[in-house]
Design goal:
The protein is 44% helix and 16% strand. By secondary structure, the chain is of the alpha/beta class. The model has no long low-confidence stretch (mean pLDDT 97). The site of hexanoyl-coenzyme A has 20 residues, from helix 2 and strand 6. This is Enoyl-CoA hydratase.
Length: 257
């Protein structure tokens, strides 16, 4: 069935997913998250796609989980049917996923962006974890990923007061990798995706896994994992082509696997 709450496009070797509930500022409801999970899985399986860009609208990447849908939820039903579990589809994608954020990325919207591998922000972007104003706390990893991204003091400030951070502060704090004018946001994110999609898929997948390991394991374990992956890349066609191209002073043409 065609998705109704997201728009899925291909731009060359880059998959693009737009969250598309503009009237509700892309509030993340169950149906939208199920569609997003399926689109991500499809792109992950497609050998012609090398990277994925996830974006929203000009006004909002996403203003959070859908408060109307959550309003009548009660414990223990929330625990028995964990409605956040499908969100984690983003974390299972082996290809790089770039969040392109304009406008509000609040609550679950900020958490969804942080589940991606990197965030490119428009100058209009506003990040925040305002759940405290609703009598709840972040529930899709926000307390953990924001603290790792910007440090304890800033994460506490944002999560305890619910205040937003603008794009300039997000760049200074290390939450986003680049800030660009709003009209260039998609172009910049797609160009980043296209650059990645030209490279050796095995090296890209391992680079992503290695950096992500830095947030999930000890330094010693992470370095061990990196070493194993580094050494195994010497068994790939990508390594042969990359190094041959350098020595022969020509551009590399990486194989698909
Ligand atoms: C449902 C939402 C929504 C949300 C906005 N809308 N955010 N609906 N859930 N999270 C709807 C509004 O109800 C309104 O619908 C329409 O979008 C436009 O929003 P306005 O408030 O009229 O716009 P504006 O005055 O510009 O204010 C923008 C805003 C505000 C500052 C982003 O909408 C806001 O504070 N939204 C809630 C942000 C939030 O608390 N997010 C965290 C949610 S909890 P109508 O029909 O009235 O036009 C969360 C937990 C995640 O995310 C945990 C993991 C699952």
């Amino acid at each position: 069935m065609a998705p109704e709450m997201i728009v899925v496009e291909r731009h060359g070797a880059v998959g693009l997913i737009r969250l598309n509930r503009p009237k509700a500022l892309n509030a993340l409801c169950d149906a939208m998250m199920a569609e997003l999970a399926e689109a991500l899985r499809d792109f992950d399986r497609d050998p012609e796609v090398g990277a994925v860009v996830l974006t929203g609208s000009e006004r909002a990447f996403a203003a959070g989980a859908d408060i109307r849908e959550m309003q009548d939820r009660r414990f223990p039903d929330t625990a028995l049917a964990d409605f956040i579990a499908p969100w984690e589809a983003v974390l299972t994608v082996r290809k790089p996923v770039i969040a392109a954020v304009a406008g509000f990325a609040l609550g679950g919207g900020c958490e969804l962006a942080m589940m991606c591998d990197t965030i490119v922000a428009a100058e209009t972007a506003k990040f925040g974890q305002p759940e405290i104003n609703l009598g709840i706390i972040p529930g899709a990893g926000g307390s953990q990923r924001l603290a790792r991204a910007v440090g304890k003091a800033v994460a506490m400030d944002m999560i305890l007061t619910g205040r937003n951070m603008d794009a300039a502060e997000a760049l200074r704090a290390g939450l986003v990798s680049r800030v660009v004018p709003a009209e260039r946001l998609l172009e910049e994110a797609l160009a980043m995706g296209a650059k990645i999609a030209e490279l050796s898929p095995a090296a890209v997948a391992m680079a992503k896994a290695a950096v992500n390991a830095a947030f999930e394991t000890t330094l010693r374990e992470g370095v061990r994992l990196e070493r194993t992956m580094f050494l195994s890349l010497f068994g790939t066609a990508g390594q042969r082509e990359g190094m041959a191209a350098f020595v022969e002073k020509r551009p590399a043409r990486f194989p698909d696997a």
